Amino acid sequence: MLFGIENNVPEVLLFNIGVALGFLAFSKLSDPANIVERFLFSAVVFISLALYLVWRAVDTLSPIEPTFESIWQYIYFTFETISVVYALASIVILLRKTDRSVEADSAREAMVKDNRFPSVTVFICTYNEPLHILEKSMFCAKAMDYPNFNVIVCDDTRRQEVRAHCQAVGVEYLTRPDNKHAKAGNLDNALRATNASNSPSDLIMVLDADFAPQEDFLMRVAGMFRDPKIGLVQTPQFYFNSDPMQHNLGISRSFVDDQRVFFDTFQPAKDAVDCAFCVGTSFVVRRQYVNELGGFPHDALSEDMLLTYRLLEKGYVTRWLNEKLSVGLSAEGIPEYITQRTRWCLGTIQIGLLKTGPLWKGRFSLRQRLHYLHGLLNWLSKPFILCLLLAPSIYWFFDIPALQADELIFMKYGISSLFIFWIYSAWISEGRTLPIFTEVTHALTALPVTVTLIQAARAPFGKPFKVTEKGGDRSRIRVHRPTAIFFGAISILSATSILSVVFGADTPTELSPADILNLIWSAVAMVISFISLIVCVELPRFGQEELITTSVTTTARCDGDTMPVCISALSTEKMELSTTMSVPVVFDEVLLPGLGWLRLMATGSGDYAINPDIEQKRWILRTLFRKSPGHIAHMGKLTTSIQSLLRRAFARQSF
Hints:
By secondary structure, this protein is α/β, with parallel strands linked by helices. Helices cover 50% and strands 13% of the residues. The chain is built from 21 helices and 20 strands. Strands 4-3-2-5-8-7-9 form a seven-stranded mixed beta sheet, with helices on both faces. Strands 18-17-14-15-16-20-19 form a seven-stranded antiparallel beta sheet, covered by helices on one side. It has a two-stranded parallel ribbon with strand order 1-12. Helix 15 (382-398) packs parallel to helix 18 and helix 15 (382-398) crosses helix 19. The longest helix has 26 residues, at 68-93. The protein is globular. The chain starts with a strand and ends in a 6-residue tail after the last helix. The model is unreliable at 1-5 (pLDDT under 50).
């Protein structure tokens, strides 16, 4: 050993390990679906965090003084408190959850038995998405198995090629002369146009241009509106591509996208108290109730969340049907990923600041206001991540600790509370969170969200709606410089701190508990920052379409000879074939069942390029999205994710 350790640090670390192992064992033996076990685990975690927060407030704060040290410690404590309160609120919210699948089953049976199917108009909202993205929604919406609906593409960029494609596919086309109020204005324009028709539909289904519904979407959702209290039914978003973190770390099959916990864990809990949030796409809303609101609300950037609260204010219920009924395109790059999150952050703040919003005079219940506050706290807690990353470097370079406390007590009770919360989070989300990896997803947007919060404090309104760009050229390595510079700096500062302590000439023979705490802290900050830095170096995505795993048995030709094959992966641009042949075979054509032969062009990399016509493309998209694909992970695997991370970190193309 290079140095000794004062006092009882080893005993404290052993205590933390024992606590972690004990709760890990409990999590393996218990079931979050069991209401008693769910309550017990939640109560223990709640008490643990609450006691920690009380200790921090009572025993670790000196009277505030006009010094950098005092101000820094109070800033740190303020955002730490917000984060802990957000965690406590999350625990309370997650005490209950619902599953509406049985309700959807009975509603569907009633529709079929009575032969009464509410009429539905599908609005596909598009701004500047390329046609190869938009057509997924068009083809798959048109192919839904429902007897009483029509599809309208609402084009806010007035493109003639989109109009022509709509005519070819057989869906309606609608546009407007301007882009006032962005997506909400686009929806409102479509609402007014269809209200003026001879027979306006009972329900409106809304899809973003990149979302493809599966064939039974409306059969699963429409029947739930037999309850007149139901104003809106929302379904979860799933993605057929990997998000920037999954792609750039190579963990798309071992770690979930960052929205999974919200959709799969929080939304069923919100639904249990009739507070499920609309999330902007893949939802159905009752036309009559939207008309009562005066149209789709547009007073905030988060028009979906605002629609939720306007319906709740009228006394209607927003439902969550937690079934995989559509898939869409996740943000493909870091800039788009950040744009989405900062827009959601600012939109949430705007809703709260409206005179009739859930913070002020709106007619909302206490429960509905608390659920809004929970969503707001999610964004207000982001600056704490920056504090966590910066705190150890401030300690080592300026000799200013983030907290004035007995470090042994903090290491014993603070770190043990963190371990318990990590284990609880993985348990309650049923494997959708992973230590460190989940922290990286939050860290990626911590700086831009913090900047957005500062801007919102000065001028919360007036910023235009910025569409998330999708479908662009991503055939080369890109580096998101602002974020990469920030995480690179934190990585270097943390690494320098560790090296100076371990190998510095003036390293003491014994380290104090404060030094040990900040040494461990520096290591954690370095790991999170370095992983985040890797994510900022965006790997290419070759081709505009990702191959999706399939299993279609058919026939292929090679020099005039036919043989059985399996289409094992497919997109509208490429295809992979598998055979039982012991030697490689290069095929010329493949038979699409019911459509005829499709020409194949070998790429030299084991797959084939294809150029399908409109009917062949329709068949491909229906094959891919008739039932939602499952090639992206829906639950985390820690060991596999770490292995993928290490391969990515030490690969040549990392930098």
